[in-house]
Amino acid sequence: MKKQIRSLLVFFFVFAFGCIPVPERRVVVTPEPSVVPAPLFPADLLEEKIGFLSKILEKEDLTEKDREIASSLLDTYKSVKNISAGAFKEAEYQKVVRALLNNLNVLDEIYFSKQEERAKDYPRSISLFATKRKEVQEAYTSGNYKGVINHCLELKAVLGPDALTAEISLMFALSLAKVGMLTEAKSIIEGIVPELDTSPDLNCLRAGIAELQLRLGEREKAIQVYKKLTDALHEQEVVLQALNKRISRAPVEGQEIEAPPPFGTGLEARVQAQTDYELTTQTEGNADQILYEVEQLIREHKFGEAWDLLVLKKGTVSSETGLKIIDQALKRLERAQEEYLEETISMISEKKEAVQIARRFLDEEKYEQAISSLDTLSEREESHEIKELREQAVESLINRERNRAAKIFLTARRTQDPEKKEEYLRSSYNILKDLIE
Q1: What confidence tens digit (pLDDT) does each residue in 267-292 have?
Q2: Which of 433, 409, 434 is nearest to 421 (CA)?
Q3: What is the full DSSP assignment across 330-382?
Q4: Which pLDDT tens digit goes with each residue over 226-265?
């Protein structure tokens, strides 16, 4: 009985719960805030680029290729501006991406092609610099100062101011001074003096070459370098003497100084002892003997010894006549030294010009002209460099004429005509005969 009651109760509760209606749930949807997205590209930047390209297209001297690139970039910026204000569409998106890709491709090609052009221009620039540098040196050596100025200005205009090295700038400044442009010359020199002071000395570098050749066992070559260095130092000594004379004459503002003695003065111990002995035993009556000795020293170009002799003699003379004679001798010595220095400087300049011309003739294989240009120099102007150039010109001339005679001789051997053969043989013989004579 209890089991039946339990079953009825379970059935009743299940039926009761099944009839209860399910409560309805309402979902509240919150409204999304309306947010305006920021533009993809800044509007002011796009306007700036559009304005810039529009001005570029207004230029009349623009090349066709550059105009095409600028026009394409302008259209792309305008497209980006139009789509930047609103939502992207697929077609517009693809159009802008393709335009940007094309423009990037063009810009890449331009950039790398210019890089290649710069790489090709570099050797040409170096070659141009070397050519111009040689032209400046030749013009300065020959005394063509206006040519030096023109070459330097052209070099500066083509390769920039850095192309005027300290060496070239110095020749430029000295040439400007020669034509009267002293202010410009001073400005250039003041700018390059620090660099010149720190540059290695050319004579020391030459001595280093000789030392290297000695270490390599090339004694003869080292001797040649030594001889050239000796010639160069002799020329520098003459220039220093001339400079010393000009310095001694230059006035000093607000100060009166005694002129320094000529460069390279100073008697050797033997000469000094002999001079001291003569000065202690001579009197004012043997002034003629002193003047005779001074003239002898002047003829031998021993100006330093002559200067010392007169200065020492002047200290022992007390009469007015004797002092006057010594003063006249000092003036005579000064004039003689100036004439000698001017003559030597002129000789050095002529020698350098003749050497330059001879080298040019040798490069052009004009050996007779090279020998003639060297023959115009006197024995006093003879140096190791000139001797070497003359030997090179003569040797090259002999080789050329000997080869010419050999070719004519071979032509004679191949010729069947007796008259032609005799003519060729005689011509070859005359060439060799002239070389022997």
Answers
A1: 343 444 444 444 444 444 456 677 77
A2: 409
A3: HHHHHHHHHHHHHHHHHHHHHHHHHHHHHHHHHHTT-HHHHHHHHHTS-GGG-
A4: 888 887 777 777 667 766 766 766 666 555 444 445 444 4
pLDDT tens sequence across 423-435: 777 777 777 766 6
Q: Contact 183/202 with Cβ under 8 angstroms?
A: no
Distances (CA, A) of 103 to 125, 199, 251: 32, 51, 72
Q: Where are the alpha helices (DSSP H) in 250-319?
A: 269-281, 287-299, 303-316
Token pair of 98 as six digits: 């393709």
Query: What's the distance, CA 73 to chain centroid?
Result: 43
Q: What is the pTM of this model?
A: 0.41
246 neighbors 262 (Cβ within 8 angstroms)? no
Q: Half-sphere exposure of 265 toward its Cβ, with a 13 Å CA cutoff? A: 16
- Say what the alpha-carbon torsion angle 272, 273, 274, 277 is, to the nearest 10 degrees: 120
Tokens representing residue 201 in the block: 């000395």
Instruction: Give the other-Cβ count within 10 Å of 149's Cβ.
Output: 20
